[in-house]
Structures
1.
Amino acid sequence: MQSESLLDVSGLTKVYGNKGSLFVPRKEILAVNKVSFSINRGETFGLIGESGSGKTTIGRMVMRLIDATAGDIQYKGKSILSMKKGEMDKLRNEMQIIFQDSGSAFNPRKTIGEQILHPLNKFYPGNEAQIQYKKVIEMLDVVGLRSDFYHRYPHELSGGQRQRAGIARALIVKPKFLVLDEPVSALDVSVKAQIMNLLIELQKEFQLTYLFIAHNLDLVAYFCDRVAVLSKGKMIETAPTIDLFRKPQHEVTQKLLSSILTLDGDLGDYYRKQSVI
Ligand SMILES: Nc1ncnc2c1ncn2[C@@H]1O[C@H](COP(=O)(O)OP(=O)(O)OP(=O)(O)O)[C@@H](O)[C@H]1O
C-alpha cells in the first residue's frame, strides 16, 4: 500500500444553527469541533462514535454536500472548500458516497439500470447507448447482480440487492474515494457480511480508498486499517485498528469496545479468533 495521503482534513468545524428572529431564539449546535485526520491512498479509515457525535456531518462536508463552518479539506493536496462549482463537478466522479439505504435514493418509477446509467450520461455524455448499456451490465455483474436486474424497479429488490445497486451506481463513474456512511446498518446480519465482503473485494479490484462511518465497532476490526473515535463533535482518539482494540486510551472508546465483548455468536467468535479482544 502506498502511504501517500489522498485526503487531508484539518480543523474541520461545523456549526448548525438558525439565524433567530423576534419569535425564535437563535440556537447553535457545534456538531463538529476542529477535527483533523488524513487518509492514505488505498486505506480504509474508520470514523466511529455514538449517535450525534458528528460522523455524518463530517462525511457530508467531505463530499461538499454541506458547507463547513471552518477548517480545510484537501483532496490530492488541493483544497476542495475553495473550489469553484465547475472544478468541484469534475471531482464528483472521483468522490462518491454510499448511504445506509442507498436504495431509498432510487427513483421508484425508473428501472435500476436506467438509474445506474444516469451518472454515466452525466459524466461521459455522448457515448453510444449500446456501450453505456454494456457498462451498466458489467457493473451489475461486478456487484453480484444478474443482467435482468437492469429492467427491475427498486421495489422489486431486497434491501441487500438495493444496496448492491447503490454501490454499482457509485462505482460506474470510476471513483477513487468513497464515503461509506453506515453502509450495512439497515441490513440483516447475513446480508451485512456479504456487502462488507463485496466492499473489500471492490477496494482491491479498483484500488479504492474508503472513509467508513459506523456508530459502533462491530465491523471496524475486520474492515478498517485505522480508526478515529468521535465524541460530541471532537476527535478523541485515533489509532491503527489493532492498537485501538488492544489499548483503548479513552473512556468512550472503552465503552464502545465493551459492547463488542457482549456480542453473541459469529461476530464475537470472529473477534476472539482474531485475538483482537
Ligand atoms: N441539519 C441539521 N441541523 C441542525 N442540527 C443538525 C443537523 N444535522 C445534524 N445536526 C446535529 O448535529 C450533531 C451531529 O449530528 P450527525 O448526524 O453528524 O451525528 P452522527 O454521529 O452521524 O449521528 P448518527 O450516528 O445518529 O447518524 C447532532 O447534535 C445533530 O442533532
Note: The mean pLDDT is 87.
2.
Amino acid sequence: MIDYIEIAGVLDEAACSALCAEIRAASGRPAGLLGRDDQKPAWPEVRRTTRAEVSLATEGMVNDLLARQKAALERHFGLALGNAEKPQFLHYREGDFFVPHQDGNTPLIHDESRFRRISAVIFLNRQMDDPSPANYAGGSLVLHGPYSGPDLRVSMPAVPGSLVAFRSETTHEVTPVTRNERFTIVSWYRGA
Ligand SMILES: O=C(O)CCC(=O)C(=O)O
Ligand SMILES: [Fe+2]
C-alpha cells in the first residue's frame, strides 16, 4: 500500500494560470539535489528541470497555502508536522524528468533531508494524452510501493490546483515530459 493524499482545489484555475505564466517568464537555474553544493551542472542525468525564481509575494502566498494544509496532512498521516520548507517552483520542458528517488526521512545521507517527513506537490497544469498548448504529455509523478510488498507503481492524477502529499521516504519519480511544459510547486514538511 502506498500512503498518499490528494487535496483538490488548493489553488483556483486563475491562480494556476498566473503561476504558470510567472514561472515561465522567471529566470531560473537547473534544479539541484539536496546536500550537493558541488553540482556542475546539477547532475542532469538524475534530475532535469528548471527551478524558477518567483516574486516574494508569490512565495508568501504559497507558504500560507502550505501552512493551511498542515492540519489535514497531520490527520491523514498521523504525524505532528513543523513548517514547510521554502517551496520550489519547477518548470519541466520536453525531455525533463527526475529519476526514482526519496526526498528524505531515510537514514542514507547525513544532510537536511533527514528532517523531511511529508513531501507535497501542487500541480499547476494538466497532463493529457493529446495536450492543448497550456498542458503537457508524459511527466507522470509515479509513486513506488515499498520493497516489503509487491512491485507497485501508482501515477498521481495531475489536476491543476490539487496538492498530492506522501511520506518523504516513499520512492517516486517524474517520467520524461514528452510534449509541452509541466509546472509544479514542491515543498517538504518537517517534523514538529
Ligand atoms: O515535480 C514533481 O512532480 C515532483 C518533483 C520531485 O519529486 C522533487 O522535487 O523532489
Ligand atoms: Fe521528490
Note: The pocket of fe (ii) ion (ligand 2) is lined by residues 101, 103, 119, 172 (CB under 6 Å).
